[in-house]
Amino acid sequence: MSDFTLTKFCPGCGYSIILMMLNKVLVKMGLQSRAVLGLDIGCSLLALNSLPIDTFQTHHGRVTPVMVGYKRARKDVVCLGLTGDGGAYAIGIQVLLHSAKRDEPVTIIVVNNSLYAMTGGQTAPTTLKGQKTHTHPLGHTEEVFFGPELLKEVVCKDAFLARTAVNDPTNLMLYLEKAIIAQQTDHFSLLEILSFCPTNWKTTGQATLDYLENLKKEFKVGEIF
Q1: Distance from C-alpha of 58 to C-alpha of 211, rounded to nearest angstrom
Q2: What's the count of helices (H) and strands (E) in the chain, helices before strands?
């Protein structure tokens, strides 16, 4: 593939930032030739062929067990799973929870934009209470779901759980590196990344940045101990 690939994501989407930072970390750690990236169905699937590493599609909500299986077969490979908040915390929560409990040495990257983005902006587990979506036009009525905090209750002490945001590239790269190091020492890791979705948020410019800052008030960023 060429050195530059045109992005398939919507204008302003945070996925491109995440992929760029991930590639920088893999280059820094000298792991490009040993890394493999599994993609969930959804916006994450648009990352296919975006990075110069082996990448493939999985079924919706099943990126975690696919990467677990890949890691068991190829222990020398750095196994990365990229999924949205819906794929991770709705249809994928069972396999994610038990993989974390078993301390499977994989790294799961969860992109949290507070809704189902590719299918038009429906309510997701991470939708804020009161947030308006196509499926909750009057505002979501349930409390928000905190994925890493739930996993904290079942993971071992050496697993790595953290949350950051696409507008904090320094911490984004730091946490990606720590997540991969946890995998290399045979432990589970998950990094949730709060991300832009101006298409479904119906925001432009500063309003998009403000929306993300509002998410950061609800979702605590940092390592989850």
Answers
A1: 30
A2: 8, 9
Written as six digits, the tokens of 96 are: 């994610």
Distance CA 169, CA 1 (A): 26
Long-range Cβ contact pairs of 122-129 (< 8 A, separation 24 or more): 124/84, 124/85, 124/86, 124/89, 124/90, 125/85, 125/86, 125/89, 125/90, 125/93, 126/85, 126/89, 126/219, 128/215, 128/218
Beta strands in 2-127 (DSSP E): 35-39, 54-57, 78-84, 107-112, 115-116, 122-123
Tokens 């992109």 sit on residue: 111
Q: What is the pLDDT of residues 39-80, one digit of tens each?
A: 999 999 999 989 999 999 999 999 999 999 999 999 999 999
Q: What is the DSSP track for 45-67?
A: GGGTTSSSSEEEE--TT-HHHHH
The architecture CATH gives domain 15-113+144-198+205-223:
3-Layer(aba) Sandwich (3.40)
Question: Are 166 and 196 spatial neighbours (Cβ–Cβ below 8 Å)?
Answer: yes
pLDDT 10s digits, 170-224: 999 999 999 999 999 999 999 999 999 999 999 999 999 999 999 999 999 999 9
Q: What's the pTM value of the predicted model, to 2 decimals? A: 0.95
Q: What tokens does 77 get? A: 């490979």
